[in-house]
Specification:
Keywords: Membrane, Transmembrane, Transmembrane helix. By secondary structure, the chain is an alpha+beta fold. It has helices at about 1-30, 35-55, 55-80, 90-130, 140-155, 170-175, 180-195, 220-250, 270-280, and strands at about 140, 160-170, 205-210, 215-220, 255-260. The chain is elongated, with a radius of gyration of 32 Å. It starts with a helix and ends in a 6-residue tail after the last helix.
């Protein structure tokens, strides 16, 4: 209902804009003595309308005030120096220029609302998505849900559960050294290393794509996690020596933090991640 009303207002504004343009054409044609002056002012009016279209109505109206004062000063100068009279021509443009600006703003209002709604829906979809489209890995939203299940199993059956947080070293610097399209490839390649280093009953998550951070939920204790860490670093070093250095022109390194789940010290999935990330500080 609201969208239909907005579209109706936009359509009416467009028709009104055409009517105003028609009035301007008729007015200019009816005043051949001021043809050049009227054409110049019409171009200024269009310029102000275009600025309003790409910015805001506030910017457009402020520029209109500047135009009105400038045009008024010009008319006052002509009146004092040449003895000219203030005619219909002056009042017409003082009224028509802000009218064109306001009508253009109303016309673009519906489009801006649709753009805002589209951005909101894109963000909402991104937040609700549980799988990254490039790596097919579950994301942090999925981790929040799965961690509750994993920790519940760990507590009920007395099975040790460890979270590994894996991060690419110097990622911010690496982003500046390799092309944008290769960043996605690097994320995918490291994801494949992580996936191949864990068992089928463990879980891998892409926690932060922008900061190249993964989470691995492992049904093992700290000693078992150390084996996985060594396996990860060995596979990465192996690829650095044979493939990554040629492909990305840089060697990728990993920082890994691990924390074993303890029900009395870890209150929720977010706290689980925070404590694991703290362990990254010790992996230099």
């Amino acid at each position: 209902m609201r969208r239909n009303r907005s579209n109706l207002i936009s359509d009416v504004a467009f028709l009104l804009f055409l009517v105003l343009i028609y009035i301007c054409i008729v007015f200019i044609a009816g005043a051949p003595d001021s043809y050049i002056q009227n054409i110049i002012i019409l171009n200024v009016a269009f310029l102000l309308a275009i600025v309003t279209y790409f910015t805001t109505v506030t910017a457009g109206l402020v520029l209109n005030l500047v135009f009105i004062f400038s045009y008024g000063f010009f008319i006052l100068y002509q009146t004092v120096s040449q003895g000219a009279t203030i005619g219909v021509n002056t009042y017409f443009w003082l009224l028509m220029t802000p009218l064109l600006t306001v009508v253009v703003w109303i016309f673009t209002l519906s489009g801006r609302q649709l753009q805002t709604e589209n951005e909101r829906l894109v963000k909402k979809t991104a937040n609700l998505a549980t799988v990254d489209e490039n790596t097919d890995l579950r994301n942090s939203f999925s981790f929040q849900k799965d961690a509750v299940l994993f920790t519940g199993i760990s507590t009920r059956y007395k099975i040790p559960l460890t979270l590994l947080v894996v991060k690419v070293k110097y990622w911010n610097e690496i982003r500046r050294l390799i092309p944008e399209e290769q960043l996605a490839e690097a994320i995918y390649d490291v994801s494949q290393i992580n996936q191949s280093s864990i068992r089928t009953n463990d879980a891998l998550y892409l926690l932060d794509k922008e900061d190249a951070t993964w989470g691995l939920l492992l049904f093992t204790d700290n000693d078992g996690a150390k084996i996985v860490i060594e396996r990860l670093k060995y596979k990465l070093q192996e690829l650095n020596d044979t493939e990554f250095s040629r492909k990305y022109k840089v060697s990728l390194g990993l920082k890994i933090g691990a924390v074993e789940y303890q029900a009395d010290t870890i209150e929720n999935p977010f706290d689980f991640i925070v404590q694991a990330k703290k362990q990254l500080e010790y992996d230099v």
